[in-house]
User: Fold these one by one.
Assistant:
Number 1:
Amino acid sequence: MEQEIDLRGYLAVARRRFLLFLVPAIVVSAAVVAVAFALPRIYEAKATILVESQLIPTDLASPTVTANATERIQVIRQRVLARDNLLQIAGKFALYDKQRAQLSPTQIVEYMREAIAIRQIDVGNQLTRRQRRQLGVIGFTVSFEYQSAVIAARVTNELVSTILSHNIETRLTRASETSKFFKQQRSRIEQKLLALESKIAEFKRNNEEALPDTLVSRRQQLVVLSAQISELERRIQWGRSANENTSPDRSNADQIAFQIQAKEVQLESYRAQRGQLGPLAEKGFVPKNRIIDLDRQIVVAEIDINALKARMASADGTQVYEGDPLSALKAFHQSLVDQADALSKSIVKTPVVEVELNALNREYENLQAEYRLAQTKLDNALTGERLEQDRQSERFEVIEQATVPSEPTKPERGKIMLAGSFGGIGLGVGLVILLELLDNSVRTVGDLEKRLQLRPIAVIPYINNSAEMRKRKRRFWLFVVMFVMIIIASVLLVDRFYMPIDLLFEKIWNRIAVLLPI
Amino acid sequence: MEQIRVALSKARTSLDQPQDNPDNTAAEGVDLAVPAEEVPASVTPLWQPRQVHLDDEVLEANRIVSYAMDDERHVAFNLLRTRVRKALHDNNWRSIAVTSPTPNCGKTMVGLNLAFALARSPECRTVMIDLDLKRPAVAKTLGIQPTGSIGQFLNNGANLEDCFVQVGENLTIGVNNDRYRHSSELVLSARMDKLLEFVHTTFDPDVVLFDLPPMQTCDDALSFLPRIDAALLVVAAGATTAQEVDECEQQIGVLEKLLGIVLNKSDSPTEDYYY
């Protein structure tokens, strides 16, 4: 019983407040419909760009541009949406011309930023990320919304070409920058190498006498020299002693002169030998020992000659040559001693020199390794540059150009109208509910009972006199007419703006016919 | 046979007498002293208020459905009538006030319809008096042109006979035509007593209905309540708030004179009237 009353109660409310519900609902719906049709139509043109991965395997030839596609698309988006770029496009196609006068460039840029959309195409959620990367299937769409379909398509294609040219430019620039960088690296190392080389050469020059590779021969030389020195010292000694206790011996003078001549001849031959063998020795055809022997013999011969001359001088008291032959010997002896000194000093110096030289050589080797490395990198960079130039690396391909859209994407009239009608109905219902809640009059026996615990002794229904009845009838017929008109109007609207009615019916019939058990 | 003829002629003469009287009401003064007991019960009283004929269209326009009985909606008032009569009978009540918390509840309509419904029973003489001295509605509702006015009587002692009209056989209506600011004082005046006495003596009613002003607009009803036996509170569905009903019901209930509440203008669908 209670349920029945409630339902009737609601019906009564509905009947009572019908107008209050209807008028706002209709007004709002009508307004929304008007708005939906008044809104300017906006068309969206779309183009699709595919990112084709490199055909040559990357381990054979690695490209220089290595950011993944998503990042790159972000970069592209930023580039495309750059203010200057947008303003240039706006100028080229005379966008937003009607409102140009009131729009500041910043606003134009804002509008365009909202109208442009660059979206990455999702291959599908079934692939894992690695699979996606391996397949290298990545793409994105570029779209532009505008009031004129033709211009929208044109702008979209302009954006596409901007993107493509930017991309190529970027890649080429990057590749050439890379190779340039490595070239610079290499030349820098080259210079270092040269500097080091000259430094080593200078060092070697400066320390020529103490170079480690001549150590052995120098030691040998020192031995020889030491022997000569001691020989000389003997001779000197002999000469002195000869000086002290020799008397002029005429008969010896001739002998001595004869000996001197013989010795001189010997010396000449030695010298000649020496002269011949010298170059050969340098070339290594003759052992060094031989040369040393020869030198020794030469020296000995010279010493003998000098000694003989000294004897002769002492024998006849004449000086054969300048200076005291003894002092000449002494001078000679001194020079030999000096030589020996120098040699031993150099021998002592040699280990130190050796260490330094080794350090320099090590440095040199390191630099060489660096150089080789730089060269390798440069080679890679050059290959990458080559790839880019030949367009063999990853590149953008337009797989779908933007065509002129035939239908507007906005405003979504259906949705707007639906939402508007719901809103209107909601508003109407809301108003009704509001008023019902605010109304605290008693309406039914139930009200009286519930609120005041009173039962009326009689309930008199609202009595309509004939005037009111007529009014009610009129209102009823008015509603019927309005209802019919609304039905007709909506049918006409659907026919005109959405789809011809016969087509619609056919569609619906096809859907239903499948379900019907005919 | 002879006796029958005599009886018949006697009856004829007695029938002739009441027809002369309506013409004389204006001329003859009513002698208040004439006791009603002197008049034989079966014969109509000496003085009769003038008879009025009610226009059906006016009644229909003013929603008076209990008079002609062609409208099926009069059944609701029959129910009311029955319950009222039962209450009257149970409590030995004779005078009923019809009031409401606020104006425009339809108390005049309810009161009149009830009066007509009551008066349809021959053994129930009904008198309805319009005591709404602020906005008298009874005469207007019935479409009567009053020659006298109760308000005038209460105010300055005009003729009382002129204020009453006869509708049908069983129903007398006391009409009012004037508005008075000091209505509550008038209602409490000494002349009120005279009026009541007049009504009781002249008409000997079984039920007297008083149409009073709304309780919350003025205090006439409240101050008149002690003078009557019971009150009907008419509330309008969708217009009267629960609070108003509560207050008025309490005020009447305190005096223990609430006959009942009538829910008027209800739009809850009730059963079809199939009679």
Number 2:
Amino acid sequence: MHGLSVAQAVVDEIVAKLGDTVVTKVRLAIGQQSGVVVDSVRFCFDLVTEDTSLAGAELVVDEPPGRDLRIVSVEVVRECAAPAAAPTTPV
Amino acid sequence: MCGTCGCSDDAGVRVNGHTHEDRLVVLEQKVLARNDHLANHNRKWLADRDVVAVNLMSSPGSGKTTLLERTIREMGGAVSVVEGDQETEFDADRIRATGAPVVQVNTGAGCHLDASMVARALEKLDPPPGSLVFVENVGNLVCPALFDLGERCRVVVMSVTEARTNHSSIPTCSPLRT
């Protein structure tokens, strides 16, 4: 029900901002008076992230007072930067 | 996985000794940013046409549709309605019987109207300039309060038996944003 539309909105916003960058962690702020049930969002998050760049991402939820409903931050897998002197090996 | 060194690509060149690390990206973005953006688009669309939209909310069975029927019949003037329900056209049929133009939005499993549904309904309804649009939200006192539709103001309908308890125990309805 409600958790699904919130979870889907979270995934849509992150993908819109970051494209197919792999996301390993998502931190949300879900206000205590926001009317959103955190457990429902957790449950739906795993469902809606399957087969997306957020698959398997850890979900962390802060529950401050108030009505805020916000994506605070995400952690992404950094595109690698090679050490300067590393030799390359053709495969 | 990595677009730089091609480490996920079987035929690629490997750079030895490199690692991948997680990087924190601060977003601080409202979850409902997209809905809010569309709601503001609706707000502008309505203002450009000098149309006032009222978002009517209540729990199921409180009397929204009945109140609307009476209001339309007794008020006169140009009034049209966006009717939100999970299923059926029953409420739209009742409004239609008053002679007011009405568009039914069925949300299916959805428990609230959102700005994109209202945008599509308003396009279809095409309210004339200077008129009033009532958006009768899905019967639900919690979720509709979270979703800005682009309305000028919100009205909560509560039956006498509900008023005393619901007003204080359902925080999303009290106080209301207008």
